[in-house]
Amino acid sequence: MARSAAPDSPPRRVAVVGAGMIGLSTAWFLQEFGVEVTVYERGQVAAGASWGNAGWLTPGLATPLPEPAVLKYGLRAVFSPSSPVYVPPSADPRLLRFLAGFVRHSTAGRWQRAMDALVPINRRALAGFDALAAGGVEARTVETGAFLAAYRGVGERRVLIEEIEHIHGAGQKLEYDLLSGDEARALAPALSGEVGAAVRLRGQRFLDPGRFVFALADSVRGRGGDIRTGTAVTDVRDRGVDVLAAGSAPEPYDAVVLAGGAWLGDLGRSFGVRAVVQAGRGYSFSVPVEHLPADPLYFPAQRVACTPLGERLRVAGTMEFRKPGAPLDRRRIRAIVEAARPMLRGADLEARQDEWVGSRPCTPDGLPLIGATRSPRVFAAGGHGMWGMTLGPATGQLLAEAIVTGRRPAELGPFDPLR
Hints:
Blueprint lengths: L12 E5 L3 H12 L3 E5 L15 E2 L10 H4 L2 H5 L6 E2 L6 H12 L3 H16 L1 H10 L7 E2 L3 E5 L2 H16 L6 E5 H7 L9 E5 L3 E2 L2 H14 L3 E3 L4 E5 L4 E4 L5 E2 L2 E4 L5 H5 L9 E10 L9 E3 L4 E6 L2 E10 L8 H11 L12 E10 L6 E4 L5 E5 L5 H18 L14
Parallel strand pairs: 1-2, 1-14, 2-10, 4-18, 6-16, 14-21
Antiparallel strand pairs: 3-9, 5-9, 6-8, 7-8, 11-12, 12-13, 15-18, 15-19, 16-17, 17-18, 20-21
Helix pairs in contact: 1-9, 1-12, 6-12
């Protein structure tokens, strides 16, 4: 689809729609160029997918969501509320179109091409967090000493080892060690006797996602940015540019960034963004555990992620393709509980707090939408699936450069919103 000519001068005032990790990172890096930013958020800061996720910063594992393993579930599995990947029976045309594209991209060849596209931005992921820290964002990331992927036996473990080899084949670095169950329990006593094999991943990090995003918002405000919560943007018109926010008169900006997560497609469609942005909802809760691990635990066969946050263990999982505003489905919480129960020791899974559901924005090909739309004044930033937290700062850094200079960084080439 053809694009309009780029503006002659860099933007001075930019509106960002969405106050999650992606939107706030973009706003922060725009400020590095001296741009005045206003952030609009329909709810509260970190209200979408940012608050309750697992908080992993794992560029080594940031791979395309459509993968050959998805096809092995079969229709009966994905329509079961206890399945790690759940599709509620629906006649929603948009969901059906998304699922058709998702299945079409769940082949080995397309996975490899998408992985090749992710490697350059994955390499920049952790440096983006370092740039935020150096710029005064008062929240820390934690480098893991023993990020463990745990399995019942070595047979299950082969799937991850094969995936790591494919990741290496795409040119992405990921160091790992193979451990026995006893070796894994020596590092993380919270693992049960059911664990018979593990993979220790090196060079990854984690954070408290809510705390980090709130600190990022504070930094944006402290540098003169305006964050307007409880303000849903209902329309964007390219008249130089006007943003029409609910309950207020249109306000003119030089550029607009659409970073509204699972709602990105609603505003992007009139600017040529044709890819379906589907809510892939994830669930989490926190529990007390007798031996709180120092680092994250991952149960790949069960699709359950565990992260030590404060004095409790956050337990997260599932991928549920449903409308972003749908209520929390307690069956999905129970599915995570029953999947995690055999793998953990000393965790009181009945003493749950902070039960949460958030909508991760997913695309059919597993690649984000980052860059200019049909209008050179309207930009998209979203569709990262499970990797919005990991890739948020790198996305904001690269997109801010593109907006201000008018030149698209090479890393953003595969993520054209008009593809």
